[in-house]
C-alpha cells in the first residue's frame, strides 16, 4: 500500500498495476474473455493468484460477476464502465512496449475502417502539444460539502 501518498497514480497502481492484473485486463478488453477458464489458459497463472486478482477487481468495481446460465454454479466476469475505461491505458502501455522493448504481435485498429488508431495527448484548447510541455500543478481545494 502507498500509505501517506496523496496521489491518484499511486492509488491506481495499487489496484491495477500488478502484472497479472494488467494481463487479465488486456484479455478482457481485447480478447473479450469473461470466464475464469479463459483467463487461466491464456495466462498460465496459478489458480489462487487468478482468483485473488479477479476478486480484487470485482470488489473494486472493475468487473462485475454474472451467473452463467449454461453452467449453474459458475460465473463470468464482465467489465464495468470503470473497467472499459482502462482500454487507453493498455493501449498506451503496449505502444510504449512496442517502441522501447520491441514490437509485439498486435496493433490497435478502428473496427469500422481497419486503420490503426492513434493515441495522443491533446489540450482541451484542441491544440496538439509536445510531451515536454505537459506540466503538473496542484488542484484548487474543493469546498467542503455541508452536512
What's the layout of helices and strands?
Layout: H1 8-16, H2 19-30, H3 36-43, H4 47-60, E1 63-67, E2 75-79, H5 81-84, H6 87-100
Antiparallel strand pairs: 1-2
Write a short abstract of this structure:
The protein has 147 residues and is mostly helical. It contains six helices and two strands, in the order H-H-H-H-E-E-H-H.
Provide structural commentary.
The chain has 147 residues and is mainly alpha-helical. The chain contains six helices and two strands, in the order ααααββαα. The protein has helices at residues 8-16, 19-30, 36-43, 47-60, 81-84, 87-100; strands at 63-67, 75-79. One of its GO terms (molecular function) is DNA binding.
**What's the CATH class, please?**
Mainly Alpha
Shape label: globular
Kindly provide the radius of gyration, computed on alpha-carbon positions and rounded to a whole number of angstroms. Answer: 19 Å
Based on the structure, what is the oligomeric state of the protein chains? single chain
How many beta-strand elements?
2
The CATH architecture classification is Orthogonal Bundle
Task: State the domain count.
Answer: 1
CATH T-level fold name: Arc Repressor Mutant, subunit A
Task: Output the helix-strand order.
Answer: HHHHEEHH
Strand content: 5-15%
| Structural class determined from secondary elements | mainly alpha
Round the mean pLDDT to the nearest integer and report it: 91
Organism: Nonomuraea thailandensis
GO molecular function: DNA binding
Keywords: DNA-binding, Transcription, Transcription regulation
Protein name: DNA-binding HxlR family transcriptional regulator
Amino acid at each position: 500500500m502507498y500509505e501517506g501518498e496523496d496521489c491518484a497514480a499511486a492509488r491506481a497502481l495499487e489496484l491495477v498495476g500488478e502484472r497479472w492484473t494488467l494481463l487479465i485486463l488486456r484479455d478482457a478488453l481485447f480478447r473479450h474473455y469473461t470466464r475464469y477458464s479463459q483467463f487461466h489458459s491464456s495466462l498460465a497463472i496459478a489458480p489462487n493468484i487468478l482468483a485473488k486478482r479477479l476478486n480484487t477487481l470485482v470488489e473494486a468495481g472493475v468487473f462485475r460477476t454474472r451467473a452463467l446460465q449454461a453452467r449453474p454454479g459458475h460465473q463470468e466476469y464482465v467489465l464495468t464502465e470503470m473497467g472499459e475505461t482502462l482500454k487507453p491505458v493498455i493501449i498506451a502501455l503496449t505502444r510504449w512496449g512496442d517502441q522501447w522493448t520491441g514490437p509485439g504481435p498486435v496493433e490497435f485498429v478502428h473496427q469500422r475502417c481497419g486503420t490503426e488508431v492513434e493515441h495522443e495527448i491533446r489540450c482541451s484548447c484542441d491544440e496538439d502539444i509536445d510531451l515536454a510541455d505537459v506540466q503538473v500543478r496542484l488542484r484548487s481545494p474543493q469546498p467542503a460539502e455541508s452536512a
